[in-house]
Amino acid sequence: MSRGMGSTLAAPAQTAHHRDAVGAKLGMWLFLFTELLLFGGLFLLYAVYRTRFPSDFHFAATTLDPLVGTVNTLILLTSSLTMVLAVAALERGRRRAAQAFLAATMALGALFLANKASEWAAKIGHGLFPRSGLLLDRTDGENLFYGLYYGMTGLHALHVLVGLGILAVIWGLLARGPRRGGEAAAERGTERLGSEAAAERGTERLGSEAAAERGIQLENAGLYWHLVDVVWIYLFPLFYLIS
Amino acid sequence: MEQRPLNGYGTYLLVWSALVVLTAVTVTVAGLHLARWSALAAILVATIKGSLVLLYFMHLRREAAIIKVSLLVALLTWTVTLALTFADVAFR
């Protein structure tokens, strides 16, 4: 913190554009903790009811296809890889590579949602949904299993959807990054060679100001995406692999 | 801003490979039907996978101490809630 303030004092021209990378990161993590406890509460509910109705949970889980779950797990894990590669590419100033990795992440996220949607559609087609006539004739434990299945994977899918929106916004910011960053740096007449050189080179590299800001945004979006991946890492065995 | 060490692309590929292998492990172990040990094994493997994502993909390794400590507090809070819930449910 004090180091950050020191560098601000050393370059007074920058105070108007002061960024606090550590603060931005900490803020994102604080939000992630609330997400962790939101899903944590649901996992708690799952744990209590599974210990209470173990055989019902095992029986109900036989309708879930482990293959679909495994494929979706691999899709989401790979999307986490492309996400972190996007961050790594931008750290090295490779904006276009970062955009390409980001696009791959979004494509994989969309694929995950498409699989999830077809899975839900099949379940609902078989009459397996909360308060359906079929389920009302079954045991309490089975009803709880399907309630938790729809509730937890549904909330998770909603998070993937929100993540896709965030990534799309970041992709758009990256797409127009160099013009804004480069021009802004040139207009301010900043004496730092880095950003002027960047403005001259124009297309490939971001101005250093904009680059730092995009870097923080991209990394925070990545943190959210990875957290959603971590939640799925637990959801997968607890729902698909217990039959 | 302080200089942070950068991970190479290779590190991330390696972590991803480990995650894929662990996914295969958890599917295989579940197929063995080890009764009550199945759930424990599944949670154990998931925790290893989650830790890999946190440490490498979410860069927790190179993060400030305050973030690591905060995460531990959040996880501890959840664990205490879990313990208290089961203490309640078990003796009802």
From TrEMBL, chain B:
<dbReference type="InterPro" id="IPR011743">
    <property type="entry name" value="Caa3_sub_IV"/>
</dbReference>
<keyword id="KW-1003">Cell membrane</keyword>
<keyword id="KW-0812">Transmembrane</keyword>
<protein>
    <submittedName>
        <fullName>Cytochrome C oxidase subunit IV family protein</fullName>
    </submittedName>
</protein>
<feature type="transmembrane region" description="Helical">
    <location>
        <begin position="12"/>
        <end position="31"/>
    </location>
</feature>
<keyword id="KW-0472">Membrane</keyword>
<feature type="transmembrane region" description="Helical">
    <location>
        <begin position="69"/>
        <end position="91"/>
    </location>
</feature>
<dbReference type="InterPro" id="IPR005171">
    <property type="entry name" value="Cyt_c_oxidase_su4_prok"/>
</dbReference>
<feature type="transmembrane region" description="Helical">
    <location>
        <begin position="37"/>
        <end position="57"/>
    </location>
</feature>
<dbReference type="Pfam" id="PF03626">
    <property type="entry name" value="COX4_pro"/>
</dbReference>
<keyword id="KW-1133">Transmembrane helix</keyword>
<dbReference type="GO" id="GO:0005886">
    <property type="term" value="C:plasma membrane"/>
</dbReference>
